[in-house]
Amino acid sequence: MDQVNVGLCGLGTVGTGVVKLLQSHADEIKYKIGSEIRIKKILVHDIEKKRDVVIESDWLTNKPEDLVNNPDIDIIIEVMGGIEDTNLLLEQAIRNKKHIVTANKDLMAVYGQKLLRLAKENKCDILYDASVAGGIPIIRSLTEGLASDKIQKIMGIVNGTTNYILTKMTDHKLAYETVLKEAQALGFAESDPTSDVDGLDAARKMTLLANLAFKMEIGLDDVEVTGIRTISQEDITFATSLGYTIKLIGIAAIYEGKVEISVEPTLLPNDHPLAQVKNEYNAVYVYGEAVGETMFYGPGAGSMPTATAVVSDLMDVVKNIRLGITGNEYIIPQYEKQLKENNEKYMQYFIRMEVDDQAGTFQKITNIFTDEKVSFQKILQLPSNTEKLAEIVMITHKISKQQLINSRENLKGLDVVNEIISCYRVDGED
Amino acid sequence: MDQVNVGLCGLGTVGTGVVKLLQSHADEIKYKIGSEIRIKKILVHDIEKKRDVVIESDWLTNKPEDLVNNPDIDIIIEVMGGIEDTNLLLEQAIRNKKHIVTANKDLMAVYGQKLLRLAKENKCDILYDASVAGGIPIIRSLTEGLASDKIQKIMGIVNGTTNYILTKMTDHKLAYETVLKEAQALGFAESDPTSDVDGLDAARKMTLLANLAFKMEIGLDDVEVTGIRTISQEDITFATSLGYTIKLIGIAAIYEGKVEISVEPTLLPNDHPLAQVKNEYNAVYVYGEAVGETMFYGPGAGSMPTATAVVSDLMDVVKNIRLGITGNEYIIPQYEKQLKENNEKYMQYFIRMEVDDQAGTFQKITNIFTDEKVSFQKILQLPSNTEKLAEIVMITHKISKQQLINSRENLKGLDVVNEIISCYRVDGED
């Protein structure tokens, strides 16, 4: 197999980057994989549009069938986005025994398991390193570098938009709404920021990583998700004064075969490596039984980082074709899904509430926590802006999620508690 | 090729880890590479010694020729250490067409280029990811994940012992000698710590990374090395008060085909990701033209992380054998070595000196810097402990190394300058 033919779906910034990399690194790629990679067709909406890259006259088409039904094409690179139509296109391609490289995390989060199974039946590869944290070779590391290890925990910042917003809120003491508007003006956040700020984008990525690490079929519904909309400047000020930084953290962990997976605002000690990851950067920390703690840090997205990841995946597919190891058994779930119950999830929590500033309040509150066997690492009490009210900020020792839920429920029934203003988990002090 | 046979040199903690991983992950490895890996022979000093792993009766030998001249063995894993004898052993193995996986950075820094050339002549692979920062798949990332990118700069903490010492000196305000003794007692530093504390170990690793990234034959002699012996508690205090952390940082950078490579104590802003890398951990930051800034963080050494890296390399060699792409062209230097001159290396510097506490001193000093066109970002003047002396701490803007050398020379000739106490580079504020 001296030559491998590729069909590229999409010629936006990522697609253009892929074409440029394949052209400028042609010799090197050939040496590294033992085959030449040739572009056969590129699927675009508008054939007439001017392109920012040298393309041959017969490459462009607006008919998907020119790629997915083309007997000359071995591999489909999908960098056009979209979910439903794209899924149908890739299904057809796989049925025609074409291997897939995709940068589409939305698609993979929804149809990934189905596509992977279909690919296995057809002895095809689907590689999607570019879909999670574009510039970080995290999927590659999970499947290769740490191949002989047992992954116990993955924890990280996997959404650039929310990390940008939280960084600006923390460093410049600006309100959420102000920073969001600025981010939208600069193009760092979309006009409808829901998917990012509500944590869905991060949840999709954590799902992909967890499936790979734990070899279970974990769905988006299994992720406990809280976004960053409710984080106030006061929360950040309290966190800072206690030595913490608030980040939107995804966690996927396994213990005795049971998994917990979540995306939530989380307080990290300022000297925790993840606390220093700023702006649009991503970082994923992996805990393996043999290797211990490792972290990968880099740009979460961007067209050239993503194109680099696509080309690396493409090179791997070619290698796998030549090795006869496509349709890899080990990307497919092997274990029955088992999720932890709330009484099996342990974490520290930051709880901030507004209470009546009168004698006996504190005792009533501590009684409730004591009944639930919750103890504290730090407690701060401050007068509130409002008269006759005080604010209490507490950081618990490790407790179960169930203990937290029970305590919160009981606090709500207490007359001296005016409001539980915020409640975030705390991690990174083990 | 259903089965690949391996000869293992060394059965210490790393070797034992490799055997355990190969045994416990046998099925998974077979699926991932399409071949079974079998251990044929293990070279040890003492055949009778009790071993902490299940081994077959005919595996152990104390004769190197049972491995390197054994026609049944395809791959030699070298985890026994040593330079001269080990080099001869591996040379013989390569001449017998055996592929090599090694965790031996001392060997690779001295004989790496020679062995790689010999391996190429014999169409063999030498993989050595485990030799640099055991737990971090950095070499893998440079050769694969970032395969289609152009690396511009590598910067990192690549020695665990010195990072442990600097962390304790900073966090617990202890003197260098005190921490070194503690580290030796705990086994984090060797009884002769020269190779670590004088920066040689870090320099060897930077050489390996630079050769790979820039495809030039850069030797240990090309690295400018300063160790950490002279760093005092006062240096750390001054750095802290100015918002910096002192780390032993290796830098390898290329610009217009010219390389600079060095290992030196370096002041980093406290919020720089590398400033937060503590204790024995390593972290390497890579700047690629396409991907931008990425960082890899993990345990710098340790037997299980190293064993994991060895097994990953082993799996890659098997893949390469089956792909017919061993003896990879692209690990061999392709470009003529070109090093930057001192007037082409730009950096900020921290300069601390003891001066006469009298009128006119400051002007005399600034005149010298002005003559060399050196300007400053920060200046601190404090009374010294000694009477009639003052201490001045300055942080320059970016200047050339030649400007620094000239300024220091001229300062020494100045009667009001009692001593230039310390001078370190400052990085990470671009």
TrEMBL record, chains A, B:
Taken from the record, one Pfam family name reads Homoserine_dh
Q: Can you tell me which residues form the catalytic site? A: 205
Report residues binding NADP(+): 9-16
Residue span, ACT domain: 350-425
Known CDD domains for this protein? ACT_HSDH-Hom
Give the top-level enzyme category.
oxidoreductase
Protein residues bound to NADPH:
105
Q: Which UniProt keywords apply?
A: Amino-acid biosynthesis, Metal-binding, Methionine biosynthesis, NAD, NADP, Oxidoreductase, Sodium, Threonine biosynthesis
The superkingdom listed in its UniProt entry is Bacteria
Enzyme Commission (EC) number: 1.1.1.3
Q: Does the keyword Secreted apply?
A: no
**The reaction(s) this protein catalyses:** L-homoserine + NADP(+) = L-aspartate 4-semialdehyde + NADPH + H(+)
What does the record list as GO biological process? methionine biosynthetic process; threonine biosynthetic process
Enumerate the cofactors the protein uses: a metal cation
Q: In which pathway does it act?
A: Amino-acid biosynthesis; L-threonine biosynthesis; L-threonine from L-aspartate: step 3/5; Amino-acid biosynthesis; L-methionine biosynthesis via de novo pathway; L-homoserine from L-aspartate: step 3/3
Q: Name one GO molecular function term.
A: homoserine dehydrogenase activity
Q: Which residues does L-homoserine bind?
A: 190
**Transmembrane spans:** none
Family indicated by similarity: Belongs to the homoserine dehydrogenase family.
Q: What is the recorded name of this protein? A: Homoserine dehydrogenase
